[in-house]
Records
---
Amino acid sequence: MVDDEVGFAQRVTLDGNVLRAGSRASNSVPILTRLDDPEIRGRRPTGLGCPVHTGKFTQLDGEGIAFQETGADGSGFFYVSGSHGCSRNSGEERPSQFILARIPYDAATDRFGAVVRTWRLSEALHTAAILGPRFGHPLDNTGGDGGLDIEGIAVDRDRLLVGFRAPNIDGRAFILPVPLGPLFATEWAVVPEQPIELPLERQEGIRDLASMADGRVLVLTGPAPDKADVQPRLMAFDPRIGAASLVEIAKLPAPESNGAKYEGVTFLEQGGGAVSVVIVQDGPSNGRPTRYQFSIPHRSP
């Protein structure tokens, strides 16, 4: 798991509807190092339009985490992303929020390897169609059509799928596919693909993404602006087909706590026309993780 107010990722165990984190010393993976770390790939983004500029390098504003399985034994890479946007309330530009990290995982030893960090996702955001002009600009807390910030990521083969809470432009939310290789290289240009435009409600944004066993991607949605009156939903689409494959799985009940929001979804298993997930919230203690099982249409051939 990743938190929005610290600089590390953390291994947790799901016990029923309880997340057990264990000790930080044995279960955390440091993501942030220091602002002038020469090992961070690429160049720090500059010239952004955030109202307040700082050199803070203590909060990742971690919003996305995804796993890419590369070995038959379950080994692979975890990817952790900061929001890559101006802070929603203060408007601060914190360099630490523009980091993407890759964490090797060895299933045979159950250990994490050396973390590789990069600034280069910003290159993709800056040049992306539709989204590029909004990169590094203040977030619009009223209409949802200003600035941009990452809220979820998923891996589709050799691509990172980047989902955005904002902007929502005339009822369209966006997922940006970016080739993974160049993000952690130094000699290749980072060239994003065309954004996938998901038809949602106005002011409805993406709150998280999660890959499913059959290759589809779960999309957790909710309000793009903080106080938008939006029905949270769980949806799914096939990234090989695009927005035309988007289906609604379920409308979610309103969060019980005042001001709480659905924040993250984790895929558990799939079979028999159903999908099992865990959904967490921003606001309640411990994230109030809740297991759900929903019917889901079969994937189109």
---
Amino acid sequence: MRLLHTSDWHLGRAFHRVNMLGAQAEFIGHLVTTVRERGVDAVVVSGDVYDRAVPPLAAVELFDDALHRLADLGVPTVMISGNHDSARRLGVGAGLIGRAGIHLRTAPAACGTPVVLGDAHGDVAFYGLPYLEPALVKDEFGVEKAGHETVLAAAMERVRADLATRAPGTRSVVLAHAFVTGGEASDSERDITVGGVASVPAGVFDGVDYAALGHLHGCQAITERVRYSGSPLPYSFSEAGHRKTMWLVDLDAEGAVTAERVDCPVPRALARVRGTLEDLLADPSLAPHEEAWVEATLTDAVRPADPMARLTERFPHTLSLLFDPDRAPDDPDVSYAGRLAGRSDQEIAEDFVAHVRGAGPDERERTVLRDAFDAVRADEVLREVAR
């Protein structure tokens, strides 16, 4: 069976100030063409269909168009909700839509109930594990501690239990939206840390033939059978080095995996440039970036006059302008933002405690801080779900 694995469409999201709806529509067209021309038997979409719980109307219309075009091909599609989606909104009408071959899996309780498709070699069971927010689903899965690994492991136990009841030789595919250990993140994924831990081990997916993952925006293979498709479009300059693709996956009669990357349309290249303003304006080696979307970091010791206006004369698509003056680390003018760059909320809070009283928090105090951050994040999720 040939699968096309994609995820993280983020319909409705902009790239800095650039509306990406046109590029997203072009991607949908490319997806449909790939399904038709490459003999795809099933499409899997591993979450974050939308960029937010209440998407703009134009994004909903594009999603509706995608559903109709996929249904018209007569190729089944299995789709789960991600941490950016409202599972309840995305799942509205799932029963009716399923009759058209578009199978929406947004309810945690249905993790162990697969969509079963067949080919010349028998059945393939597709299990949809929507994003499992630990604080919201721990009761459903009967786990005492709300954590990503515990709830995902419990969901996978349901998958394995159902798979054990099926005919010998039944192959299996799991769709999941999670941060798996070993994956490379970028700046554009929403933080899903709980209890100081965001990732789960790849071994949680043992026992299935293929795990089609969503959440991380870079296409990558954690193992031969556990892969991220990545987002089809860039959503931060940290993705400048990404090659945006989908996975074309073949499952043979025994469940062995062969995978090929299929490139997605590139609306415009990304470039990150760094140096003094005069160097950036004069450096001939930067000529290939003149038509790219540019993030420029200026290292001038003194902020120059009208830097954006001058940059856009050479790089008309400059979208982000940062300042990072070349100074010694102990220079008192080093910015507060620079000192905090790359640090988690937990680390910043612990540093603050150490600064105020001269000694960092003990383990009990770290736990209190961690629980407080988890409670705030869970409250934000609940308020978004309730919108």
---
Amino acid sequence: MTQPPSPPVGPSRTDTLIEYPCRFPIKVMGAKAEGFVHAVTMVAREFDPDFDATTIELRESKGGNYLGVTITINATSREQLDELYRTLSTHPMVKVVL
């Protein structure tokens, strides 16, 4: 008698705890430079045309050299979030995306 195949171990790429659409915060960090917040805002609008820039939260580093920018977008899919993270991560002004 053969046994049925065992279920895969660990979560698959399609498993998610996020229910779309939803509001999704993303923290972007970079050097405190002119144009940084604007650049992050423009990327956010590429992926969420209704992005509300008034919801942006800013946090300066202790030394004042870096700036944390929290954007909250309307996430519609995992693919959208993955591409948004990729786009932000490769932007020349961005150091870290969380």
---
Amino acid sequence: MLVTTREILNQAQNSGYAVGAFNVSNMEQVQAVVAAAENEKAAVIIQASESALKYAGLEMLSSIVICAAQKSPVPIALHLDHGTAFEMVEACIKSGWTSVMIDASAYDFELNIEKTKKVVEIAHRNNISVEAELGRIVGTEDQISVKEGSELFTDPDEAAEFVERTGVDSLAIAIGTAHGKYKGEPKLDFERLKLIKNCVEVPLVLHGASGVSSSDLQQAIKLGINKINIDTDLRQAFADGCREAFAKNQQEYDIRKICGCARKKMFEVVSEKIRLFSLK
């Protein structure tokens, strides 16, 4: 069933667990996420970045996810990840998406609020959830790139003011994670997370979770994280599946066998993450 992230995350917040938000770019990835969610009987968030939409096409990817969600017995939200252009946010809203992220974290505090409020106003009129970001996460994810040393951890007091003035449904925070593959072991600022959680009532979002240890992720959930974004781990799993197909037969040309193997690998990773985030 197709629902908003507000419905999914409020339930997660009330019950003390996190929901996986899995990035996709094609049909096989969508199938892997939905199959894993149904197998685990868990709600999931399927999300796509602006770059993924340029690759797959907004109408095409929207249709695939919406069709899969409407046929599924588990709650599924369709979410725009790191929407930086208002035109893209608006296009997703008009195309039936149930959730959008406006990422104006590259701007100063007041301009971030101004841009976020504009999206909240139009989204809430259409019963669509809004995620925003305060602070900057180092690394590269599609068109978003923040150089090391330019990251900015989220200030708890600013987070409280930001949520109150914008009316966002969830807030992505910077506490030490990074986009892309980690060069070393990430160190999460759990004390900062505690302070933010004490100041903010909406569900909190952790970006750049691929490569973070299971123990750290579960600790973050216990301290108030309710949405965890996974992208890099999925790309690696999909690529591993393709390599496995060619290892079995270097001359393989049946795209169904190649992508089918990749889909299976991604299904396994998504299933593992869902169980991890549920704290079972």
